[in-house]
Amino acid sequence: MAQDSGAFKKYGLDVKLIFLAGGLAPVAVMAGEVPFALMSAGVMVPAALRGAALIMVAALSNYLNQVLAVASEFTDLKQLRGKRIAIQRLSDLTHITAREALKHVGLLESDLQMQQIGGGPARFTALQTGNAQVAILTPPYSTRARKLGYRIPVNPL
User: Fold this and answer.
1) How high does pLDDT run on average in the chain?
2) Which of 10, 102, 131, 152 is the most buried (most CB within 10 A)?
3) Distances (CA, A) of 45 to 40, 74, 109, 126
């Protein structure tokens, strides 16, 4: 939005925006590929705890806007054992959210198959097509999932 509106240029900033899929932002900063990055605390804190010299300057919110969306045919969450859950990438915030949400409903990460599907549209599509029975979704896909009758047993953590 700031790029499109000309805000960077207005204030004399020559900015090149780069999209990095989940979990890659701290790696890019540590490698010196980018001087700073917008990332969730969920991917920054674990890297910092492992010794990465990262500093968090600000947070956009103090809650997760991600939900665990489940195909409606699963009436008991224990039925999800062995099923596929769509996340973006291992070690990113969707993975962390999945692990914590599963814990919250009495399941372990190892009870399901983590599928690295990609961004929100791909995870939503995987859920709709049956390629995954569970997905970690954010708006607007979490809102669409609710409207289509998917169960949201854990809503925001």
Assistant:
1) 89
2) 102
3) 9, 34, 20, 29
Measured CA to CA, the distance from residue 37 to residue 17 in angstroms comes to 10
Backbone angles phi and psi of 109, in degrees to 5 = -55, -40
Helices 93-104 and 41-49, axial angle in degrees (round to 10) = 100
Q: Which residue has the tokens 């990113």?
A: 92
Residues in contact with 35: Cβ distance below 8 Å, sequence separation at least 6, in sequence order: 29
pLDDT per residue as tens digits for the range 60-105: 777 778 999 999 999 899 999 999 999 998 888 899 899 999 999 9
Q: How many residues does the chain have?
A: 157
Strand partners, 68: 136, 154
Q: Hey, what domains does the chain have and what are their CATH numbers?
A: 2-49 (no CATH), 67-154 (3.40.190.10)
Is the model's pLDDT at 155 over the cut of 70? no
Buried b (16+ CB within 10 A) or exposed e, 15-26: eeeeebebbbbb
**Do the Cβ atoms of 72 and 135 come closer than 8 Å?**
no
